[in-house]
């Protein structure tokens, strides 16, 4: 047992002495949180918008003032026709526009009603859909305020939209669980596999194997420091999430930590499995990067909804561990659901952990023998 703890202490000292490794381990969460939380965002800000109506209309003026006061849109001016709007978009003056029917205010009280058309530049379809959604929300709110003074009959004509769990449509609510899944996999799997393979590559693994500690004990002794470091990284990520990105934790903090610890152990098992399969650090890095990190970013639901992917890719996504972790964390952190609603995700993660660790230990023992 003393020999085991001596190996653990040795690995801790190795991590602390390697400043580049420490920089990656500590700096990575900060960089990714800042990058995905601020630089990479699906939210829209300061969208230039115009309006088209024949004549003056006080209701339309009030509506455009309301839109201009929002943090999402900047009103650029009035246009006399749809052709002028098209030309303004081509010149880059505006990104979206509202075209109002003639006699808009009078039509609000008539049986025929009034009509407003939302026009958006759909060269970037994601931005266009967000702009239309935001504008529609503001217009519906305006209708409710405008019609409230004319009885419930008029007010009932306007639908009431509700955005649950993320009413401001902040992209950080979507990115944070994905960032956590990406960071923990990178720290655990990549660092663990490279650390073990490095011993093979330099020839020191043979020296370690002649010690009284069993070979698998040596491997686990090298994994424990990265487990501790991963827990520290998890805490740093959560602190940045709460105090920098201001993403609330609606559910149980205890269960969120417990699920994260399970995912950390699973990621360590992936690193151990990779280290048992390869002999060089470069190959280990390539495998972690290409086989695990890229699918985590593209097919785990971190950036794109899995439901929108082709069926074949949806099937592949089911075997990506990060997909289940991200779903569980989103439900606990953002939706605030009880643990019973994430039993499926936790069960899958637990099953993957058992399978991967079993395969890794068997493969590692076979390589030693």
Automatic annotation (TrEMBL):
One Pfam family matching this protein: ABC2_membrane_3
Keywords: Cell membrane, Membrane, Transmembrane, Transmembrane helix, Transport
Membrane disposition: Multi-pass membrane protein
One GO cellular component term noted in the UniProt record for this chain: ATP-binding cassette (ABC) transporter complex
Cited InterPro entries: ABC-2_transporter_component (IPR051449), ABC2_TM (IPR013525), ABC2_TM_bact-type (IPR047817), ABC_2_transport (IPR000412)
Gene Ontology MF terms in the entry: ABC-type transporter activity
Localization of this protein: Cell membrane
Domain ABC transmembrane type-2: 132-367
Coiled-coil region list: none
Statement: the UniProt record of this protein carries the keyword Transmembrane: yes
Family, similarity comment: Belongs to the ABC-2 integral membrane protein family.
Protein's UniProt name: Transport permease protein
Taxon lineage: Bacteria, Pseudomonadati, Bacteroidota, Bacteroidia, Bacteroidales
């Amino acid at each position: 047992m003393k020999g085991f703890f001596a190996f653990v202490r040795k690995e801790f000292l190795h991590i602390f002495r390697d400043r580049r490794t420490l920089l990656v381990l500590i700096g990575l969460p900060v960089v990714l949180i800042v990058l995905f939380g601020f630089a990479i965002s699906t939210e829209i800000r300061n969208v230039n918008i115009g309006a088209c109506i024949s004549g003056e209309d006080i209701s339309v003026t009030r509506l455009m003032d309301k839109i201009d006061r929002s943090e999402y849109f900047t009103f650029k001016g009035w246009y006399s026709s749809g052709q002028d709007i098209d030309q303004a978009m081509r010149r880059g003056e505006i990104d979206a526009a509202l075209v109002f029917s003639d006699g808009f205010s009078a039509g609000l009280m008539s049986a025929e009603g009034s009509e407003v058309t939302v026009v958006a530049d759909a060269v970037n379809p994601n931005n266009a859909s967000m702009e239309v959604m935001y504008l529609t929300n503001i217009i519906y709110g305006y209708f409710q305020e405008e019609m409230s003074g004319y009885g419930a009959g008029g007010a009932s004509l306007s639908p009431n939209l509700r955005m649950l769990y993320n009413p401001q449509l902040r992209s950080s609510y979507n990115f944070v669980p994905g960032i956590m899944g990406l960071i923990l996999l990178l720290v655990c799997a990549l660092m663990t596999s490279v650390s073990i393979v490095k011993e093979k590559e330099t020839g020191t693994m043979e020296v370690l194997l002649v010690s009284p500690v069993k070979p698998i004990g040596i491997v686990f002794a090298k994994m424990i420091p990265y487990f501790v470091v991963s827990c520290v990284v998890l805490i740093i990520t959560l602190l940045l999430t709460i105090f920098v990105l201001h993403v609330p934790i609606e559910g149980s903090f205890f269960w969120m930590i417990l699920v994260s610890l399970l995912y950390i152990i699973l990621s360590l098992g992936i690193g151990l499995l990779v280290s048992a399969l390869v002999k060089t650090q470069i190959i280990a890095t390539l495998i972690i990067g290409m086989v695990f990190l890229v699918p985590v970013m593209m097919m785990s639901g971190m950036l794109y909804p899995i439901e929108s992917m082709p069926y074949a890719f949806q099937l592949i996504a089911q075997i990506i561990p990060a997909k289940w972790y991200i779903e569980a964390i989103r439900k606990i952190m953002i939706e605030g659901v009880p643990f019973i609603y994430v039993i499926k995700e936790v069960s899958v993660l637990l099953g993957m952990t058992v399978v991967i660790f079993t395969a890794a230990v068997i493969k590692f023992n076979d390589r030693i023998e």
